[in-house]
Structure formats: C-alpha cells, structure tokens
Amino acid sequence: EKSIMLQNLDHHWKEHLATLDALRQVVHLRAYAQKTPINEYKHEAFSLFQRMLDNIREDVTRTIAYAQFQLQAPPELPELPDFITSHFDPFTGEDNSNDWDAAARGLLQPQMPPMQIPQPEGTDLGTDPSQWEGRVNRNAPCPCGSGLKYKHCHGAVTA
C-alpha cells in the first residue's frame, strides 16, 4: 500500500508542477480581463492542488481495489532459547537488575549463591568492622560474609 501510494503521489506531483509552470506562463493574460494575475494564479493553483489530491485518492483506491496480492508464507524460524536479561554482580553473584515484574512472573533464573572470593594472603582483617575501614575496597564483598558489597553492608556511609 505504501509503495502504491508513493508511486501515485510521485507521478501526480510531477504533473502538478508541470501544470503550475504552464499556468505561470499564461496567467499574465488575465490582466487583459481586469483581474490581478497573482490572485488568479493563487486561486488556480489551489484548485489544481485540490484536484491533484482527489486524483491521488482515486488512483490509489482503484489500484488497491483491483490488485491481487500474492503473499509468501513467512519462513520457519529456528527454535530460540528464552533469553533473560539481568545483571549479576561478578563478585557476589547477586542479581542487581531490580526487575520485580519479571521476578513476580517467574521469568528470572534463581539467584546463584554468593561466591566466596578469597582475600589476598597476608591481609588478616579480623572480625571487628571498625578495623576494616580503609583496608577493604568499597566494591569488594563485605568480609562479614553477608554477600553484599562492603559499601552496602558495613561500609555504608551514614549522613
């Protein structure tokens, strides 16, 4: 339908421009009839434009009404696995996507248990959280074993 519409529009528009050019060349003769040529040109051009729109509508409707379309069946698509988009934290394995609608529909995969990342040797942090400040990276897993990042657990900034 779009193709037919564009083809008809293109054809009729070219004819309309040619007709306007011819009108421009002869409109000065209206001055002999005591009429203003520019006003006569405007009125004639507007009526020609309206006629062009009517012709386009008629031609497009006629073409589509009599057209017989042969549509091909769409090709068979291969079976694709269901893709689930989510964001898993590489340090803890937590799902940070906050997609509550998908979780409610059961579309998210079950969360993986938090990964235990070994601390580098020789860095004994102890069990006192007050000693961890400055020694634990804010994006590293919290040493308490909660599975959260340090900045969301014991390293949370309070205002």
Report the major sheet: none
Unreliable spans are 100-105
The H/E string reads HHH
Share in β-strands: under 5%
Report on this structure.
The protein is mostly helical and 159 residues long. Helices cover 38% and strands 0% of the residues. It contains 3 helices and no strands. It has helices at residues 2-26, 37-66, 100-105. The two termini are 63 Å apart.
Note the topology.
Layout: H1 2-26, H2 37-66, H3 100-105
Helix pairs in contact: 1-2
Looking at this protein, list some descriptive labels.
159 residues, mainly alpha, 3 helices, elongated
Summarize the structure.
The protein is an all-alpha fold and 159 residues long. The protein has helices at 2-26, 37-66, 100-105. It contains 3 helices and no strands.
